[in-house]
């Protein structure tokens, strides 16, 4: 029992999901942000409501730790998400 506990302590931790793990739909919205589309244009192109687009944008900003569209796109490019 003690041996198992000691071995378990020294095993590599399992990787945790990174804070910027985006859903497929959030990635779609982010790609549209890169194209400088408005929320209304994104909604139309992805067949979503404007409110849903804004909800996805808030989630993207939170996950990337940014405050706006430009920062989201810049950070996503730097991290290889776009």
Automatic annotation (TrEMBL):
<keyword id="KW-0238">DNA-binding</keyword>
<dbReference type="InterPro" id="IPR016032">
    <property type="entry name" value="Sig_transdc_resp-reg_C-effctor"/>
</dbReference>
<dbReference type="InterPro" id="IPR036388">
    <property type="entry name" value="WH-like_DNA-bd_sf"/>
</dbReference>
<keyword id="KW-0804">Transcription</keyword>
<dbReference type="InterPro" id="IPR000792">
    <property type="entry name" value="Tscrpt_reg_LuxR_C"/>
</dbReference>
<dbReference type="GO" id="GO:0006355">
    <property type="term" value="P:regulation of DNA-templated transcription"/>
</dbReference>
<protein>
    <submittedName>
        <fullName>Helix-turn-helix transcriptional regulator</fullName>
    </submittedName>
</protein>
<feature type="domain" description="HTH luxR-type">
    <location>
        <begin position="15"/>
        <end position="80"/>
    </location>
</feature>
<dbReference type="Pfam" id="PF00196">
    <property type="entry name" value="GerE"/>
</dbReference>
<keyword id="KW-0805">Transcription regulation</keyword>
<dbReference type="GO" id="GO:0003677">
    <property type="term" value="F:DNA binding"/>
</dbReference>
């Amino acid at each position: 029992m003690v041996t198992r506990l000691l071995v378990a302590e020294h095993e590599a931790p399992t990787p945790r999901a990174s804070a910027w793990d985006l859903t497929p739909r959030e990635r779609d919205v982010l790609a549209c942000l890169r194209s400088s589309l408005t929320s209304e244009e994104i909604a139309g192109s992805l067949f979503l409501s404007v409110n849903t687009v804004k909800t996805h944008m808030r989630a993207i900003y939170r996950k990337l730790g940014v405050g706006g569209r430009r920062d989201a796109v810049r950070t996503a490019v730097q991290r290889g998400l776009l």
